[in-house]
Amino acid sequence: MGIIRKPKLTEIVAMKKLLDEASDEGKVLSRRLAEMFENARDFHVYVDAQGVGGLTALHIDLIDLAEVRSLVVRKDLRGSGIGRQLVEAAMDEAMHLDIERVYAFTRIPQFFLRLGFTQVERSELPYKAFKDCLQCPLFPDCDETALIRDITPKPQIS
Ligand SMILES: CC(C)(COP(=O)(O)OP(=O)(O)OC[C@H]1O[C@@H](n2cnc3c(N)ncnc32)[C@H](O)[C@@H]1OP(=O)(O)O)[C@@H](O)C(=O)NCCC(=O)NCCS
After folding, report:
1. In the CATH scheme, what is the code of domain 3-150?
2. Alpha helices (H) in 28-127, listed in sequence order
3. Parts of the chain with a pLDDT under 70
4. Do the beta carbons of residue 51 and residue 10 sit within 8 Å?
5. pLDDT score recorded for residue 155
6. Whose CA is nearest to atom 17 of ligand 1?
7. pTM of the prediction?
8. What's the rounded Cα separation, in Å, for the pair 27 and 75?
9. From the centroid of its chain, how far is CA 140?
10. Which atom of ligand 1 is nearest to the CA of 84?
11. Please, are residues 101 and 150 in contact by the beta-carbon 8 Å criterion?
């Protein structure tokens, strides 16, 4: 049994290894190690006795908009709710930052639909959302679906 938390800088290399494995399978976009260190505070990780078992990042684009990206769970841990917990940790962080909407680009829209995201036309997202497209090997023939989730503040308990 592991925990979800913010990463330590000493875990970034292990995080990149997980990301690279999924990237080699065409599931996520690879990130440079330097970029991962620069954006270290974007991430949450799942950590267990074997080390880093999953990660995702919440990357801020605009005052009211962020992207959830770089979502990977170690193969032997998949199907036990860790991917969902990682995305929910990113959503909680978005709520604390007063971010109104979080979007994702994905080839597995069903996963995000289960987590309360709604499919949108890519053209509904602002220009900033396409920041990574030029470095994507699939550009301009993208086969990813855009989804978005509104972030609603949790009710205050008095
Ligand atoms: C996608 C991924 C992160 C899911 O992680 P996970 O820990 O296995 O997911 P969970 O166990 O939290 O699943 C949450 C829900 O999504 C569903 N789900 C999981 N993987 C799915 C998939 N590939 N397609 C559709 N639905 C999926 C589960 O059935 C579950 O639904 P339920 O709650 O109704 O039972 C993991 O499979 C992975 O790392 N894949 C390779 C990288 C990748 O594709 N990343 C996403 C890029 S956008």
Report:
1. 3.40.630.30
2. 33-38, 82-96, 109-114
3. 154-156, 158
4. no
5. 66
6. 111
7. 0.95
8. 13
9. 22
10. 12
11. yes
